[in-house]
Hints:
Blueprint: H1 15-22, H2 38-48, E1 52-55, H3 62-69, E2 73-78, H4 81-92, H5 100-106, H6 116-120, H7 128-141, H8 146-163, H9 181-184, H10 187-201, E3 210-213, E4 226-229, H11 242-252, H12 283-293, E5 298-304, H13 311-319, E6 325-333, E7 346-354
Parallel strand pairs: 1-2, 1-4, 2-3, 4-5
Antiparallel strand pairs: 5-7, 6-7
Amino acid sequence: MSLMVPEWxxxxxxxxxxxCKAANFPRLRYMGSKYKLVPQLAETFAEIGGTRALDxxxxxxxxxxxxxAMGYSVTSNDFLNFPTVISRAAVANQSxxxxxxxxxxxxxxxxxxxxxxxxxxxxxxxxxxxxxxLDAAWSHIDxxxxxxxxxxxxxxxxxxxxxxPRGVFTFTDLRYxxxxxxxxxxxxEHFRERAAEYNQAVFDNEMDCNAVTGEVFDISADGxxxxxxxxxYAPPKDDNCYVKRYHFLEGLSVYWRGQEIMENTxxxxxxKKFTPFSYKKTIEDALLRTFDRFSxxxxxxxxxxxxxxxxxxxxxxxxxxxxxxxxxxxxxxYSFGTHATAARRNASEYIFIGR
Length: 355
């Protein structure tokens, strides 16, 4: 059941009301997502204050949305495209929604005879009917622009994620079909429901907000009161490759234009993007460079006890650029792995605050 959220105004918002609003943000099942930590983060952000905030690794978009609900001028960034589209649709967008006519058009007959998804992913992930719909939907989205285009792509991405077991694309069959409605609802109907969810999420916080795609080291460090960091966690074992898990969503967000598909792979995954945050050998230097880049802002970092480096190492690194470092530990059931041996889920989530 959705929570009843009062009409947003910057003058009356509180951490509790902002967290309540964020609880209604369309939920994407995403590795490392911070939906469950929203109440704690809201209290932390309220204590810090300020007016301009950066969410440097936006992922599911929920923290960017929380910051917007708290009245910040938000810059949302991610190194993948589909999280940026989500943030453009629900954070940067202040007023546009998809009309009933827009939704009817996208879920109606195709505007052309394109069949890229039908042919490239034949027999994979979805039904024939679903793959036909995805091609047809893009035949209309290609004629859209601005926030409406972002909303349509975000709804399409969320539809595909909800329909796929566990929300990841590391397998092509239905081995994890547990009978849930989401797994059997046609994508055409998913899209109608997801579009309605994103429409409900749109609101004007009376501040300039934007969303970009890029590396954290390319973001201008000037002017942010608050910088929130939730980088990919360097795991001691296994991997944390977002491209491997969400390659289909990334490709779908651009209709695979400009993407390199690894044709020899069973899942038709995309070439992995390098990030120094993913490896034990490079994570400490990457964190130090990031902390140093945003040393003039208050830094809030989320990190998990499932990852390396450990809490004391991160505290030491952050202390190199911040004289006042606070560490908050939160017991958290953390979604990290998707396989039977992923037993690291009960963990402590740390919130580091560097002033």
